[in-house]
């Protein structure tokens, strides 16, 4: 797979495009627009762009106010800051009134690397899923991010979009049939299902290749939407393959693995394994070093799949 | 689109509105058996001035009218005040006030904009209303509407850091269509604000942040109206009105030695005495 743009870069470019199509779209920023890449929007539409300073709580409250007046708001900051610093505001000024605010958390996961744990959003998906009425999307690459942004713009309810920092492999070289709440089957398979999102989708595909060499036919699902989850895809995986591995660049508790386990447990319980960050913060280091040290790799997905046999 | 205008303002009529709102606050919270009557009573003249003296432009028949002015009750525990004012203004029948806090009623313990027309923000987690107000004020500016936004906070609420983030942002955006009214009743849940976290000097703080700040007697209707008029005429910066009030006014005497009486409804006996005073 060739390396493409980062998800945050793709988000920023897609957002600037959206701004042209809909004059009601506005963006709020906590003084990180050159990191979240909302600067593309800001340059094109300065009158619809509000940098409120390093103040995520106020930023999210303002987003709620703009949305309650009919504006279609995108609020972007680092995942760690917008989700953790402004959680009460997301809860009370966005989720509870059910307003049209799209929350974007960039620099999510441990793959941000050297900046270290204070900057790494590792619990953001869990927090977003805990907001009633929120749609939660974790795109894998550049082409699917463009589609995700368009899909999120088409709904009038609140949502969270997770975006990583580094450039990532292009999973969808030939386009991507993206629908909110619908998993994408990247590879059919009958022995085990690998369910992943974000950065771990490319790793799951690599793992499927390695498993093939061991005589195991792995299905790979890109579960880009964590909420609402594609229960039908989970049920099919459980029924048809009987084994599921879930991989994500997020804490084990409350992320994609939890959502899939809940879905499988309710519908058709099968043995499962989880590749995730287990009850720990990470540390500073190169992204690939961190992913290896904390076990978020194709190799770990293969190990997990083999342990189910 | 209120019926009254400044010209035919009748202070007697406003006073009678204020009394009616106060009776509703006492009756609804006593019927509910819980709630924050004293926190609601301190803001009555402010709400009366906004809703019944031609300050707010609103239409109870078109609660989502885009050009309406907004009143955001950031101190969401003062919901009985907001509900009483909305009923008085004709958003819903006054008899609904007796459903306060009951299962199925849109008059929840704290305001829920999804359930009750006229409620402009869902509040109750303190400190968020001013930020919401900034968003509404910015949207009005983008849409070239001359709609004005009024936000009421408590004084204890100002402990929240988010309020000061918002104070700085409102100044940055030069929001002269935004007015903050602090219902400074001097008490918060566990005691006097001066003891819990002293805010003094409050009005100069707003001035230091670039706002136009006024200090008034929040129970003097003519003071409240003059301050709102000055706020409207202030250009290029937001306005803060620090309204000194009394928690539980004017029935605080019957609530015994506790001047705070926070989050406690009046008993039936206390309510009867209060209603006699408010006749």
Write a structural description.
The complex is a heterodimer of chains A (309) and B (279). By secondary structure, chain A is α/β, with parallel strands linked by helices. Chain A has 2 domains: 3-169, Thiamin diphosphate (ThDP)-binding fold, Pyr/PP domains (Rossmann fold); 184-306, Rossmann fold (3-Layer(aba) Sandwich). Chain A is 40% helix and 21% strand. Chain A has 13 helices and 14 strands. Chain A has helices spanning 7-21, 33-36, 39-44, 56-68, 79-84, 87-95, 124-129, 142-153, 200-213, 231-241, 256-267, 287-293, 298-306; strands at residues 3-6, 25-29, 49-51, 72-78, 101-106, 135-137, 159-162, 167-169, 184-187, 192-196, 218-222, 225-227, 244-251, 272-277. In chain A, the strands form 3 sheets. A 7-stranded mixed β-sheet of chain A has the order 3-2-4-5-7-6-12, sandwiched between helices. A 5-stranded mixed β-sheet of chain A has the order 9-11-10-13-14, with helices on both faces. In chain A, strands 1-8 form a two-stranded antiparallel ribbon. In chain A, helix 1 runs parallel beside helix 8, helix 9 (200-213) crosses helix 13 and helix 10 (231-241) packs across helix 11 (256-267). Chain A starts with a strand and ends with a helix. Chain B is an alpha/beta fold and 279 residues long. Chain B has a single domain (11-107, 122-277), classed as Thiamin diphosphate (ThDP)-binding fold, Pyr/PP domains (Rossmann fold, 3-Layer(aba) Sandwich). Helix content of chain B is 38%, strand content 12%. Chain B has 10 helices and 7 strands. Chain B has a 5-stranded parallel β-sheet with strand order 1-2-3-7-6, sandwiched between helices. In chain B, strands 4-5 form a two-stranded antiparallel ribbon. In chain B, strand 6, helix 9 (221-233) and strand 7 form a beta-alpha-beta unit. The model of chain B has no long low-confidence stretch (mean pLDDT 95). The chains are: A alpha/beta (309), B alpha/beta (279). Chain A binds chain B through residues 26, 47-48, 50, 52-53, 55, 57-71, 73, 88-89, 91-93, 96-98, and chain B through 66, 112-114, 120-125, 127-128, 130-140, 142-143, 161-162, 165-166, 168-169, 172-173.
């Amino acid at each position: 797979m060739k390396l493409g743009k980062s998800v945050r870069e793709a988000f920023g470019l897609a957002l600037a495009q959206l701004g042209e199509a809909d004059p009601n779209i506005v963006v709020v920023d906590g003084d990180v627009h050159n990191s979240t890449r909302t600067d593309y929007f800001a340059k094109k539409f300065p009158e619809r762009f509000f940098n409120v300073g390093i103040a995520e709580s106020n930023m999210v409250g303002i987003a709620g106010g703009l949305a309650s007046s009919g504006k279609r708001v995108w609020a972007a900051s680092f995942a760690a800051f917008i989700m953790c610093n402004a959680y009460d505001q997301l809860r009370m000024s966005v989720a509870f009134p059910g307003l049209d605010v799209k929350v974007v958390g960039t620099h999510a996961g441990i793959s941000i690397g050297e900046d270290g744990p204070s900057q790494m959003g590792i619990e953001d998906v869990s927090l977003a899923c805990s907001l009633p009425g929120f749609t939660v999307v974790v795109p894998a690459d550049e082409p699917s991010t463009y589609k995700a942004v368009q899909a999120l713009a088409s709904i009038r309810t609140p949502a969270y979009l997770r975006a990583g920092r580094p450039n990532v492999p292009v999973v969808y070289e030939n386009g991507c049939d993206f629908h909110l709440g619908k998993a994408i089957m990247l590879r059919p398979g009958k022995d085990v299902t690998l369910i992943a999102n974000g950065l771990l989708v490319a790793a799951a595909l690599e793992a499927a290749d390695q498993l093939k060499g061991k005589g195991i036919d792995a299905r790979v699902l890109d579960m880009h939407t964590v909420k609402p989850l594609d229960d039908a895809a989970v049920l099919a995986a459980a029924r048809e393959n009987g084994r599921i591995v879930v991989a994500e660049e997020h804490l084990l508790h409350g992320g994609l693995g939890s959502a899939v386990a809940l879905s499988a447990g309710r519908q058709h319980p099968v043995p499962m394994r989880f590749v995730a960050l287990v009850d720990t913060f990470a540390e500073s280091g190169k992204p690939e070093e961190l992913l290896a040290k904390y076990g978020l790799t194709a190799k770990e997905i293969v190990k997990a799949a083999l342990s189910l046999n | 689109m209120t019926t009254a205008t400044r010209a035919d303002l009748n202070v007697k009529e406003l006073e009678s509105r204020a009394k009616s709102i106060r009776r509703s606050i006492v009756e609804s919270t006593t019927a509910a058996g819980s709630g924050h009557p004293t926190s609601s009573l301190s803001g009555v003249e402010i709400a009366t001035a906004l809703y019944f003296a031609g300050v707010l432009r609103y239409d109870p028949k078109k609660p989502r009218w885009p050009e309406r002015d907004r009143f955001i009750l950031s101190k969401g525990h003062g919901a009985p005040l907001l509900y009483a004012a909305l009923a008085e203004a004709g958003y819903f029948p006054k008899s609904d006030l007796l459903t306060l806090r009951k299962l199925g009623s849109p008059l929840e313990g704290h305001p829920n904009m999804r359930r009750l027309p006229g409620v402009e923000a869902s509040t109750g987690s303190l400190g968020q209303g001013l930020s919401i107000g900034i968003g509404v004020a910015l949207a009005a500016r983008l849409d070239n509407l001359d709609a004005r936004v009024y936000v009421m906070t408590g004084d204890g609420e100002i402990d929240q850091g988010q309020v000061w983030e918002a104070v700085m942002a409102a100044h940055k955006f030069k929001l002269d269509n935004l007015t903050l009214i602090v219902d400074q009743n001097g008490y918060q849940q566990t005691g006097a604000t001066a003891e819990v976290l002293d805010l003094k000097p409050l009005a100069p703080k707003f001035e230091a942040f670039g706002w136009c700040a006024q200090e008034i007697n929040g129970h003097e209707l003519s003071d409240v109206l003059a301050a709102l008029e000055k706020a409207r005429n202030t250009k290029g910066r937001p306005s803060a009105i620090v309204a000194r009030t009394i928690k539980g006014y004017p029935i605080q005497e019957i609530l015994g030695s506790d001047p705070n009486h926070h989050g406690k409804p009046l008993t039936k006996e206390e309510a009867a005495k209060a209603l006699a005073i408010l006749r």
